[in-house]
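Lecture notes, unit on binding sites. The following record was shown on slide 14. It pairs a sequence with L-homoserine.
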Amino acid sequence: MKLKTVKLIVVGFGIIGRGFCKVFSEKKKFIEEKFKINLEIAAICEISGCLVNENGIAVEDIEKLAANKIKLEEHQNWTRKDTADVLKEVEAEIAVELTPGNIKTGEPGLTHIITALENGKHVATSNKAPVAIRFNELQELAQKNNLKLNYEAAVGGAIPVINLYRENLQINNINSIYGVLNGTTNYILTKMRRDGITLEAALKEAQELGIAETDPTYDIEGIDTAVKVVILANALMNKNVKFRDVKVVGISGITPEAIDLAKKNGFVIKLIGDVKKLEVSPRIVPKNHPLNVDGTLNAIMLETDVASDITIIGRGAGARETASALFSDVLGIAMELNN
Ligand code: HSE
């Protein structure tokens, strides 16, 4: 069977971008053999320029770039072109948008996603902010151009919550969704409870693990969870909500004493995103409850009308885990292409 070539433009080369490229270099052959798809990366873009090779950047180079053994700007195909020009000019089927998002503006990802969709490129993104801020507009733009906008990686890291709903729970009404949607705060609360360390010390560890947001107050103050609540409400519960509709309390007020008190009474404190109530707040959860997951894990409970209750647990953050969700979105698009 003939291989189908599908080209990607990767936008953003931080922790998530490198993780995606590392998994790409590991899995390229596997994808060829299993799906008969020759996946190529035609460009990798970041703030200061883009590395472009329309025939596909060599996989050995991608591996070295991902491991930081060579820098993007040291590569022979490095250019000072900006991302928008590359999204317009370079021939590729899918833009993989992986920049960190500003929650107030959704930028720079919002512009990248719009530019890609206006220039005939499907989009797979881990970027929560633009999807949350402009959910309906971006969906409409994608539909108008007969393109896909996939964002499985934006919520719950490796947990396939969006695709579970779309591909397996189609006939269900989702009555409520709530859970632990932020790996960093879950890691912090776990470390405070188990090891008695301070919030600041635990945050530092989470940052070293590469799971915290570029601005970690997004994690601590519940903003990241609220953004995910908005996406889940719009994508899975057919709502039309904005970030400002969510009532948000983070974990900065959680004291070691509160954690100890909960512990003594057989409870743990978790930062819970409640999609039905549009609320993010620390709540006490019984020790043996399915939402009592530790470390960087996320846990999401769906209450549905036909399938009843479903809980999914998995790694909610991390470059490699996020890459798993991104590849599910990329391959979902690639398999439907007729080139
Ligand atoms: N900072 C986020 C978290 C990354 O800790 O969950 C994944 O969305």
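Take-home: The CA atoms of residues 293 and 299 lie 7 Å apart.
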